[in-house]
Amino acid sequence: MDEDGYQIYPSWTKRPVVIGHEFAGKVAAIGAQVTDFKVGDLVTAEQLHWCGKCAICRKGLYNHCRNMGRLGFVTNGAFAQYVAVKEKHVWNINGFKEIFGSEDDACEAGAVIEPTGIAYNGLFSRSGGFMPGATVVIYGAGPIGLASIALARLAGASQVIAFELSPSRQTLAREMGADVVYSPEELAKQGTSPHQVVLDLTAGYGADMHVECTGLPKVILPEIEQALAVNSKVVNLGRRAGTTPSTLSIYQDTGSQSFGSLGHTGYGTFGYIIKLMSTGRLNMRKMITARFPLERAAEAVTSLANREGGKVMVKI
Ligand SMILES: [Zn+2]
Question: 10 CA distance to ligand 1 centroid (A)?
Answer without folding.
Answer: 19
